[in-house]
Amino acid sequence: MTILCLTGWQQKYDALAEIAPKARHFDYAAYDNARAMFAALPKQVDLAIGWSLGGQLLVQAIAGGFVKAKTLLLIGAPFQCIASKDFPYGMSAAEFGEIRENYRKHPKEMVFQFNTLVGMGNPKTARIIQKLNQGSEIWKNGLYWLDELGKTSCASLDYSKFSKTIILHGATDKIINPANANKFAEILPDSELIIWQACGHAPHLQDAEGLRNIIKAHV
């Protein structure tokens, strides 16, 4: 079985190795152009797994015909990061601008604060934050990918190319509102929505075995 994994923003490229050790963990952070990155992805896989921004990028890649996946697993993926009239569940443009500026000026401090929020919302918060910060490095193209996250909405994509999609989201996610998962479930033609209670933005670090069992049950 061929598996493709895309990590979250400012996370290790192989952050999903615990749930998919034999996958191809694609280092999109090495690219400074989204379209070039999409073109470099494998054309066909059995399972594509995307965490956070990685999930949103996979949605774009499949909708654009760059990747064909028999099954897609979205983990805490943003439908849209910045709120709009049609999707009010994101942050304000001013809030995003402040985050961007903090990252530009003080990237290490901002990523540490970001990882703290990623790890919150579950009983294993301290251990998860520690794991997120181990070996954490500032991406060379981190600002570019943060801007991609800020400007992207999945509202107008072509969803006719999608096969089965599992949407997993933590009910207490402090980074991406669970309403994003509901929106994906609403718009994707063949999807299953799974909400984990007392779970934040890193379900794979909170319950790797549970996620592996979900993968086994659906692939």
Give the helix level as a range of percent: 25-40%
CATH class: Alpha Beta
In terms of DSSP E residues, the strand content is: 15-25%
What sequence of helices (H) and strands (E) makes up the elements?
A: EEHEHEHHHHEHEHH
Explain how this protein is built.
Helix 3 (93-105) packs across helix 4 and helix 3 (93-105) runs antiparallel to helix 6. The protein has helices at 34-40, 53-63, 93-105, 107-119, 125-133, 142-151, 179-187, 203-206, 208-218; strands at 3-6, 24-25, 44-51, 68-75, 164-170, 191-196. The protein is globular, with a radius of gyration of 16 Å. Strand 5, helix 7 (179-187) and strand 6 form a beta-alpha-beta unit. A 6-stranded parallel beta sheet has the order 2-1-3-4-5-6, covered by helices on one side. It is an alpha/beta fold. The longest helix is centred in the middle third of the chain and has 13 residues, at 93-105. The N and C termini lie close together (9 Å). The protein has a single domain (3-218), classed as Alpha/Beta hydrolase fold, catalytic domain (Rossmann fold, 3-Layer(aba) Sandwich).
Notable characteristics:
6-stranded parallel sheet; globular; Rossmann fold; 40% helix; single chain; 219 residues; 9 helices; alpha/beta
